[in-house]
From TrEMBL:
Signal peptide: none annotated. Residues 1-47, 74-123, 136-165, 230-253 are annotated as: Disordered. This is Uncharacterized protein. Keywords: Coiled coil. It comes from Streptomyces nogalater. Residues 177-211, 323-350 form a coiled coil. It comes from the Bacteria. Residues 1-28, 74-93, 141-165 have a biased composition (Basic and acidic residues).
Length: 593
């Protein structure tokens, strides 16, 4: 029963869904009644698909014979236009309607094109009439304005006319007007001629006044140019010129030209004197001469510029012997400066030669791989010519001289400082570039600028490079002392270098460089690194011994480690210097007083 109930429930659910779907489909059918009619038992039965097909066919037929939406919209617009036209027609008066009916009955209103052409002609006529009316209104207003403007203010007429000039009508008035206009033109022309003549007379009068003024100016200029004449001198009586007027004018023009030239020369000379006075005052006020306390400088600074030329000769006579003394002193100073510059140039050239020798003496021996025959140091710089070097060294000497007289100057003026500044000035603007070989395990020929050693080298590589540089400097010192043939360039004691450079290749490199440059290396260390110690031919181990009774301490040799003793020298073999004995000197203690 439960299974039947569940099956019935499922069937009822399916029927309900089918009924809802059919109701929705039925609601979409246009014209279907809301209530379902009673089922007629006698009505023929038809299947649902057949009914659906029949409805679809009927809908297609209905759509074919139906009126389109555009026709309905056009119909609505036509009805709206008809209503608007009828309302506009109702607003017109009966007179307008009657005239319209008469026009429609005429030949122009027989058809549409005739009516449009008649309307266009009527519109053009209306526009023409309106234009004429506006023109006439404008002219009428202008004439009224002219009438009001020309009308007299207080009386009926501007003036009283004789009887023969009173116009009888418009034509008579025009004739009188033409006659008056001709007379006015003649009178105006006569007035213009009179004014032109008056203008010419005014110009002639002005030219005469200008000539008189010019003559007065020339006379005043001549009086000013003759200012040197003293009042006590009696002016000579002028003599008349014996020649003609033209010759007198020519002579006067030449005299004026000569006078202008002399006046120009005088002005130029005065300007030159003023300029020289200004230059003298500026020279005396210069900050370079603040320490000068001579009376002449004080007078030059205080006297007016116009009074300076009067004292110029006195100052020139007074300054002449002093100028001669100063010139001799300056010449002597210049000779001393040239001597100092020549000496400094020799020292600078010697220093540059030392730099080149340092590069040459740093050449490594064979048996070092890529380093064989390479120069450990590479020093590059551009040598200046003699003229440039002399000029730059002169600037160095001048700077040192200025610093000597300047207060609170910290510029050192000892010999080494001057030499270093001279070398730096000689190598301007590029300076000197120093490169050094970088020690590594395979001894590649890689060069590094000395300024980058602290960033690129390790601790052992830095120590090895320092030992190589010392050996190079020792060989350079030996070469400067004239002992380049002597292979012993000195001895270098090293304080525990194995603590930083215990690599085998670094120790080999240190010994090879020192052997090539003739420097004896002595290593001291407290480490017992057998790998590092095996590189040395002689190892001496020391110990501290104490004498308890005397309270003294001694350093004793504990043992000798000789991994490889030197062989006896063969015939013709160069023997390096060896330490065979030592001596210690103890300074005696000062005796008590």
């Amino acid at each position: 029963a439960d299974e039947d109930r569940q099956a019935a429930q499922r069937a009822a659910d399916d029927d309900g869904r089918t009924a809802r779907a059919l109701r929705a489909e039925r609601s979409e059918i246009a014209g279907a009644p809301d209530d379902v009619p009673e089922a007629d038992a006698d009505a023929p039965k038809a299947s649902l698909p057949a009914l659906r097909e029949a409805y679809r066919a009927a809908s297609q037929v209905y759509e074919k014979v139906g009126v389109g939406a555009d026709l309905r919209a056009e119909q609505a617009r036509a009805e709206s236009d008809e209503s608007a036209a009828r309302a506009e027609l109702d607003r017109l008066s009966n007179k307008v309607r009657t005239r319209a009916e008469q026009l429609l009955q005429s030949p122009d209103g027989s058809d549409g094109p005739s009516r449009q052409a008649a309307a266009a002609r009527a519109e053009e006529l209306v526009q023409l009439l309106e234009t004429r009316m506006s023109t006439a209104s404008e002219q009428l207003g202008r004439l009224r304005g002219e009438t009001e403007r020309h009308a007299p203010e207080d009386a009926e007429a501007h003036t009283e006319l004789p009887e023969e000039l009173i116009p009888r009508d418009a034509e008579h008035a025009q004739a009188l007007l033409r006659t008056a206009t001709a007379e006015l033109a003649a009178t105006t022309e006569a007035l213009a001629e009179a004014r032109a003549a008056h203008t010419e007379l005014l110009e002639a009068h002005r030219a005469a006044e200008d000539a008189a003024g010019g003559f007065d100016e020339i006379a005043a200029m001549l009086r000013d140019l003759l200012r040197e004449q003293t009042p006590e001198e009696e002016p000579e009586e002028p003599e008349p010129y014996p020649g003609t007027l033209e010759e007198a004018r020519h002579s006067a023009a030449e005299a004026r030209r000569s006078l202008r030239g002399c006046a120009a020369d005088l002005s130029a000379a005065e300007a030159a004197v003023r300029e020289a006075s200004d230059v003298l005052v500026r020279h005396a006020n210069s900050t370079r001469y603040e320490q000068v306390r001579t009376p002449a400088r004080q007078q030059i600074r205080e006297l007016p510029a116009s009074a300076l030329p009067e004292h110029a000769q006195k100052w020139a006579d007074a300054f002449a012997p002093r100028l001669r003394v100063l010139t001799d002193e300056l010449a002597q100073l210049e000779r001393n400066r040239d001597s100092i510059v020549d000496r400094l140039r020799g020292l600078v050239e010697s220093a540059l030669a030392t730099l080149r020798s340092a590069q040459r003496l740093s050449r490594l021996p064979e048996g070092l791989g890529e380093w064989s025959g390479q120069e450990f140091l590479r020093i590059r710089f551009e040598e200046p010519d003699q003229a440039t070097l002399t000029e730059r060294l002169g600037e160095v000497i001048d700077e040192a001289t200025r610093a000597a007289v300047k207060k609170n100057s910290d510029l050192r003026r000892d010999g080494m400082s001057l030499l270093l500044r001279g070398v730096a000035a000689a190598l301007q603007p590029k300076g000197v570039a120093v490169e050094i070989l970088k020690p590594d395990a395979v001894l590649r020929a890689e060069r590094v600028p000395v300024g980058q050693m602290g960033d690129v080298f390790s601790g052992g590589q830095l120590l090895t490079a320092a030992i190589a540089l010392y050996c190079t400097m020792a060989a350079l010192r030996s070469n400067d002392r004239g002992r380049d043939k002597h292979r012993h360039a000195g001895t270098l004691f090293l304080d525990n270098p194995i603590g930083r450079a215990n690599a085998t290749y670094l120790l080999e490199l240190q010994r090879a460089v020192s052997d090539a440059l003739g420097v004896q290396l002595l290593y001291t260390t407290g480490l017992f690194d057998t790998t590092a110690l095996a590189e040395f031919p002689l190892v001496i181990r020391l110990r501290n011994d104490a004498d308890l009774r005397a309270g003294l301490k001694y350093i004793s040799v504990e043992e000798h480690l000789r991994p490889g003793l030197p062989q006896p020298p063969q015939a013709g073999e160069t023997v390096h210097s060896e330490i065979t004995a030592t001596r210690m000197f103890k300074k005696p203690a000062p005796s008590a007083p």
